[in-house]
Design brief:
Blueprint: E1 5-7, E2 10-12, H1 17-46, E3 48-51, E4 57-62, H2 63-76, H3 89-102, E5 106-108, E6 114-117, H4 122-139
Helix pairs in contact: 1-2, 1-4
Length: 140
């Protein structure tokens, strides 16, 4: 690829023109994924990582904590994006969670009190977070 340089399976950083070109493409698609990206950023920022007996990790967050984190990030970025109209932000969060569940990115815990990141969804979650993190860093 002309945008990324790879040597021995290591992807090298990009600067200048390549960085601007990648930012251009990111900005063209971000509006299609903003709800999912905000929820994933909230999960990444506030999740608890638990080590399991088989040395795997479980990433989870309480539903109430997730709602307040998404509300905070949404308010922070309210001048950057147009959000889907809904009576309440909690409605948007629930609709977005259902979408993420259908895509096997997250799932509910057995008692539906926590949101758990699926092992198969970690890459997609990272992609969605990377869409929004540059905007969040500008405000931090």
């Amino acid at each position: 690829s002309k945008l990324l340089r790879e040597t021995n399976s290591i992807v090298h950083g990009f600067r200048g023109r390549e960085s601007l070109e990648l930012s251009f493409y990111r900005n063209q698609i971000i509006h299609f994924f903003i709800s999912e990206a905000l929820v994933c950023c909230a999960i990444a920022a506030h999740a608890t990582v638990t080590k399991n007996d088989d040395n795997s990790t479980t990433v989870s967050i309480e539903r109430t904590k997730l709602s307040s984190a998404v509300r905070f990030i949404s308010q922070l970025l309210k001048y950057e994006f147009v959000y889907k109209a809904a009576p309440d932000i909690d409605d948007n969060v629930e609709l977005t969670l259902e979408s993420l569940i259908q895509r096997n990115i997250v799932r509910y815990s057995s008692h539906k009190t926590q949101i758990v990141v699926q092992e198969s969804g970690k890459e997609m979650m990272l992609f969605l977070c990377l869409l929004v993190w540059p905007f969040i860093e500008c405000y931090w």
